[in-house]
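Q: Could you fold this chain for me?
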Amino acid sequence: MASATEGIEGALGREAPQWGIRPVPASLRRLRGLDVAVLWGDLSIGLLVLLTGALLVPALGLPTALVAIAVGTAIGCLPLAVVGLAGAREGVPAMVLFRPVLGVRGSWLPSAANLLQLLGWTTFEFWAMTRVADAVGERLFGFRAPGLWLAVVAIVCTALALAGPIFTVRRWLERFGVWIVAGVAAWLTVRLVAVGDLGALWRAPGAGGLPFWLAVDLVVAMPVSWLPLVADFDRFARSGREAFAGTYVGYALGNAWFYALGALLVLAAGASPDVLDLGTTIAAVAGGGVVLLALLVGESDQAMANVYSAAVTVQNVAPSLPQRPLIVAVGVAGVVGAAAIGDAAALSLEAFLLLLGSVFVPLAGVFVAHWAVLHRGRYGEAALFEAAHAGVRWVALIPWTLGFVAFQWCAPSPVGWWRDALEAVASAVGLPFPLAGGALGGSVPGFLVACVVAVVVSPRGGGDAPTRPGV
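A: Sure. Below is the predicted structure, expressed as structure tokens.
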């Protein structure tokens, strides 16, 4: 193992190792708590976060929207940090963490769902970045070249994924990326406040139509969307404590800031901007060059994370496949998808991916119950890889399924055919749909139902391996 590590480090320099799904050795666990905070603070920032924050203000009013942002951030970042803690302690990626819960072959089910959503998000990120960059390029240079922008976006993001998490954090984000993103965010904040009447907006009542807890659910949605990825990166942290603190603090700060910044967009736009017009709205306020810079720097790490984790997810099913060709293959798939979809298809894709998100919130609840409660925060390497756990643990599907049902019952997906089917089932059995008119949101009920049921039905013990000291 030592010779393999040395070969990896020599190939890209000591800051850019590639690693498969086996526990990361101590020599490669180099990310400090600050490094982790920088990574997740940067990953928490994006155009979709701005958009969702902007949607809250017309419905709730600015004061209530800010409370929803604070509550949703505090709730959503907790399971994210717990899974990051588990990844650091066990030293393995997220899909491998599900092996003791579901069995090795059972973990292939979330791996398939995760690969599907990561390919979708890669396609959507490439499409969105290309579209906005092309629009801003026309504003700045007077010509459109979507093919060129798509190539630039794909090359940059795939190259960062090939370089690996340590390189991305220490050489890209800490030396360059995070400063650009922070500067752009500060400039946008100042400009948005300056061009609008903040006092009038603060006093304006909300238009209604969005219950408070459903608004909280919209905020929770962003951090929990990273649950299937967080351990892929936090496994390189020096300790579980640093991974937990860095993930929670870093993501919470960025998430709250950009949701609030999105809420302030109504000051400039006069209404909630559509996702397709978001770049133009910001450009009108802060200048096209700022948008272009924020797009290429601030969004590149998110697409990188999707590309990298998609490759690692495949390795959970086929560990012998080399990581680098998988990363390139995912990047190519993202280019093909981004070139093929249109605006309407992209919005439908986003709704479908939100449906997939309801799969992973309950799964996180099952994992937290199994790892943190029943196994006291430690599996051990043998429980993750030994043949005794190679099958499917069917009992774990019970809380996962019930959590999914609770999520969809409380906050059904906007996908039309799916929502119609759920409503028909609820009507047939005489249940209200959605529960409490959607006022409860879906993330919290789905997580809690899955977690509680998992504690009740999961078997104790089960031959887990002894813990590994010093991790």
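A (continued): The radius of gyration is 22 Å.
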